Amino acid sequence: MSFIAHCGGGVSSSSGRSAGASEGTGGTYATGGTSQSGGIAGSASDGGSDGGLGGTAGSGGAAGAGGTAGAAGTAGTGSTHPCGIFINDAVRDYPFVAGTLVTLKWPEMESTPSSYDFSKVTTLHTNLSPGQTIAIRMTRIEPEHIVAGADEVWTWTDPNPNHTDCTSGCPRPVPWDVPTLNRYRELVGALAGVQVDSDQGPLPLGQHPDLESVMLLLPGWSRIREIGFEISELPGYSRPKLIDATLEALRIQVEAFPGKPVFVGFWKVTDDVETPALWEAMRTAILDDPALDKIGFYQENLSHYVQEGEDVFQPTTTFAAPLALSQQETFNGFQALTSWSNPSPSYAAKVEGGSPVAAIEWARSTYGARYFEIYTSDADAAASGAGPAWLSGFEALAENLCLP
Q1: How deeply is 171 buried, as exposed, middle or buried, from its count of CB atoms within 10 A (0-12, 13-18, 19+)?
Q2: Sequence-separated (6 or more) residues with CB below 8 Å from residue 331
Q3: Which residue from 56, 65, 171, 345 lies 20 to 30 Å from 80 (Cα-Cα)?
């Protein structure tokens, strides 16, 4: 089952698929959408993701409205706007959980050339409750044999203290490396073709009604983000080559998963050209490409905390401008920065006194987002009653996130 929805109102621009209003002021946000000045980008992440957050604390009040409680969304297939609450790499039979996020890594899927292991997808799908779906996410880096076959490589050092690989540097192909893009096409095609059980018998994953959305690694830099490097310093860099390679990687996903929503992580990247900024040029290129009309934008840094009695929500619309400006033209999605009930020590301050329900309600109002990934510990806390009283809020969101 997948849900049909469309993005809501808010900040938008005239570039791309539909015209909209001009960008509002940035900075941190108070409750109810009132903008405060400021907004300083950060670079945090949690639980193995490469997420980041931005903005300084702002003032606010009560959390935005989340709608009334009700039954789960209407079943359907072929949604172009994914929606619902998904949990990370686990299966839970809770009414408010739309499905499971399946995190994949290229080295694990293809440990040797052209020999694939997609068992994680089939195993998690087998354990789903009726009506639940899966979302595919691919993270981290390329296998060593892919790097060995690249024409040109660079070295990436991961600055995230929560990660254990690449902290001393990993060679990666440049994003426009032709041999790597060819091997990437083979991998994505094999993933889309893996047979997954259904009520009608085995079906290719790329055509399966239980596949809600896809977000695969962009070869050479994982997502549209500079984390621990400057994109313009990569060997052989030019803006046209980077944009063309990014569009090609996204087309490979869209072609392999026809009719399925495809997310791409999108942050404000820059190079030596100030106007338009690289991220603005990249955004325009994606939104103007008719082959990419099922591409949406994503960040993994959603948080809510209380500071001096005031609600603070992140990311700010300044930090997440690619999403804020695009909500009238495509769909947006978020992953929580960390768990509220069992936070990573590095990010505990970013959820202290906060609520995943309030964070989702705020992002729905501010970014038009309808798709959210939360940590399993928060879903368990809500369902068991052992944690804060989030259950009624999650149940209301299960209804409202998937309304047309």
Answers
A1: middle
A2: 6, 7, 80, 81, 82, 261, 296, 297, 368, 369, 370, 371
A3: 65
Q: How many CA atoms lie within 13 A of 257 on its CB side?
A: 33
pTM of the prediction?
0.81
Q: How far apart are alpha carbons 142 and 131 in whole angstroms? A: 33
Q: What confidence category does residue 168 fall into, taking pLDDT thresholds of 50, 70 and 90?
A: confident
- Domain locations in the chain as residue ranges: 31-400
Task: Evaluate whether 102 touches 134 at the Cβ level (below 8 Å).
Answer: yes
Please give the single-letter amino acid code of residue 190.
A
Angle made by CA atoms 89, 360, 83, in degrees to the nearest 5: 60
How does residue 208 score in pLDDT terms, banded at 50, 70 and 90?
very high
- The CA-based angle 68-91-189, given to 5 degrees, is 105
Compute the distance between CA of residue 402 and CA of residue 38 in angstroms, rounded to an integer.
Answer: 33
Torsion sign (Cα): 77, 83, 85, 90: positive
Helix crossing, 278-288 with 239-256: angle to 10°?
A: 40
Per the CB < 8 A criterion, the answer to whether 321 and 26 are in contact is yes
Looking at CATH, the fold of the domain delimited by 31-400 is given as TIM Barrel (3.20.20)
Q: For residues 231 and 225, give the distance between their C-alpha atoms in angstroms, rounded to a whole number.
A: 9
H helix count then E strand count, the chain? 10, 13
| Average pLDDT estimate for 14-39 | 36
Helix (H, G, I), strand (E, B) or coil at 14: coil
List 205's β-bridge partners, or say none. Answer: none
Which residues, at least 6 apart from 118, have a Cβ–Cβ distance to it below 8 Å?
Answer: 104, 109, 190, 191, 194, 205
Burial class for 332, CB neighbours closer than 10 Å (0-12, 13-18, 19+): buried
Q: Are 311 and 304 in contact (CB under 8 A)?
A: yes
> Which ranges of 222-355 would DSSP assign to H, the alpha helix?
239-256, 278-288, 321-324
Q: What is the dihedral of CA 229, 234, 240, 245, to 10 degrees?
A: -80
Are 94 and 393 in contact, with CB atoms under 8 Å apart? no
Nearest alpha carbon to residue 341 among 303, 381, 306? 381
Confidence at residue 106, expressed as pLDDT on a 0 to 100 scale: 97
| Structure token digits, residue 341 | 């009930």
